[in-house]
């Protein structure tokens, strides 16, 4: 038997657990489970070199074709804990997002085996050894309950914030734009996270650049933030990530910090101090100085989680960073224009 050290724990970058990349499928006589992983470029290249030119055989039971005399052995603390056959389609290919599949006669055992393999693969990225003490399954009904509770909590928080704003400024004319801007941020973040919309965001990028070029030709004043937002937001839209509970938490965090910044703009422009005669532009500049400082510290705090975190932590960090960028590049300047007109 020939053994080759192809992939280590460091090569397994992400073990996907979201519904888009992981799940169960009923088959005759049982259930198939599947999930995807993301491996490093070097690991994928080593896999391609080892499997290149391998013989293939047809499994008469499943009807699938596999590489002959080749298996992937999973080691945990030096012991073989599982083995996987290699699909013939992967022969000689450097694929960074392979899919792991398996089957069990019962649904519960299929779920447990999927979670066990995911846990083993995740353990390689941890700085310590991992021992599986138990495997628990959260039912779809319970998961839906968590999701509903998170949405309800967000709605209650939004209602409480709106009530405080109305009491603070005693004006629906001020509270309504704040609410609309917050809603716009949520819609934009969800739109950026959506999948299969690269073409749409490419058109948006071209349209944004076209508008800016026309503005330059007409010699209209354009600040650096307009250029950055016009390019960066569509590029973020070409990404995609799963909307789960952690992402909802990131949206709430981004909107929460954003609401603080909107209140700063409102205070500086409408109910700011009267002892100095600031112009409207000076007031907005003072507000944005504070806003950019707060945004930079939030992004700096999230970047380590984005690059070093795994799974849910990374999703939370990405969503928070995207939400902050959407705020400072799109919705804050738009709200500043609204407040400027209200105050003039």
Structure description:
This protein is α+β, with helices and mostly antiparallel strands. The protein has two domains: 112 residues, no CATH class; 160 residues, Up-down Bundle (Multidrug efflux transporter AcrB transmembrane fold). The longest helix has 32 residues. It contains nine helices and seven strands; from the N terminus they run E-E-E-H-E-E-E-E-H-H-H-H-H-H-H-H. Helix 3 packs antiparallel against helix 4. The strands form two sheets. Strands 1, 2, 3 and 7 form a four-stranded antiparallel sheet that branches. Strands 4-5-6 form a three-stranded antiparallel sheet.
Query: Major sheet, described briefly?
Result: 4 strands, antiparallel
**Amount of beta strand:** 5-15%
Order of helices and strands: EEEHEEEEHHHHHHHH
Number of DSSP helical runs:
9
Question: What keywords describe this structure?
Answer:
three-stranded antiparallel beta sheet, elongated, four-stranded antiparallel beta sheet, alpha+beta, 344 residues, Multidrug efflux transporter AcrB transmembrane fold, single chain
Question: Helices and strands in order, then pairings?
Answer:
Layout: E1 12-15, E2 22-27, E3 30-39, H1 41-51, E4 56-58, E5 65-76, E6 79-87, E7 99-104, H2 107-123, H3 140-169, H4 172-193, H5 198-217, H6 224-237, H7 245-269, H8 280-308, H9 312-343
Antiparallel strand pairs: 1-3, 2-3, 3-7, 4-5, 5-6
């Amino acid at each position: 038997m020939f053994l080759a050290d192809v992939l280590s724990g460091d090569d397994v970058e992400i073990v996907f657990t979201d519904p888009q990349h992981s799940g169960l499928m009923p088959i005759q006589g049982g259930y198939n489970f599947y999930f995807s992983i993301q491996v490093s470029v070097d690991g994928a290249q080593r896999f391609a070199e080892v499997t290149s030119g391998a013989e293939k055989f047809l499994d008469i039971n499943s009807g699938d074709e596999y590489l002959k005399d080749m298996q992937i052995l999973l080691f945990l603390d030096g012991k073989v804990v599982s083995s996987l056959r290699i699909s013939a389609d992967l022969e000689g290919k450097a694929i960074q997002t392979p899919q792991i599949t398996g089957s069990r006669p019962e649904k519960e055992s299929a779920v447990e085996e999927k979670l066990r393999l995911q846990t083993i693969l995740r353990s390689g990225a941890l700085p310590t050894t991992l021992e599986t003490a138990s495997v628990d399954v959260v039912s779809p009904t319970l998961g839906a309950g968590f999701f509903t509770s998170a949405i309800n909590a967000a709605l209650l928080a939004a209602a409480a914030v709106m009530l405080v704003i109305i009491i603070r400024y005693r004006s629906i004319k001020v509270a309504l734009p704040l609410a609309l801007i917050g809603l716009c941020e949520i819609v934009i973040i969800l739109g950026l996270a959506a999948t299969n919309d690269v073409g749409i965001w490419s058109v948006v990028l071209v349209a944004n650049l076209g508008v800016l070029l026309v503005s330059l030709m007409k010699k209209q004043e354009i600040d650096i933030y307009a250029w950055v937002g016009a390019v960066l937001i569509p590029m973020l839209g070409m990404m995609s990530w799963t909307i789960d509970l952690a992402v909802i938490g990131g949206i709430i965090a981004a909107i929460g910090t954003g609401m603080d910044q909107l209140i700063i703009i409102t205070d500086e422009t409408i109910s700011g101090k009267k002892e100095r005669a600031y112009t409207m532009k000076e007031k907005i500049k003072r507000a944005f100085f504070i806003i950019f400082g707060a945004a930079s510290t939030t992004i700096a705090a999230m970047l380590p989680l984005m690059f070093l975190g795994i799974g849910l932590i990374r999703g939370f960090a990405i969503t928070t960073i995207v939400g902050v960028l959407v705020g400072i590049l799109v919705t804050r300047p738009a709200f500043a224009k609204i407040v400027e007109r209200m105050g003039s």
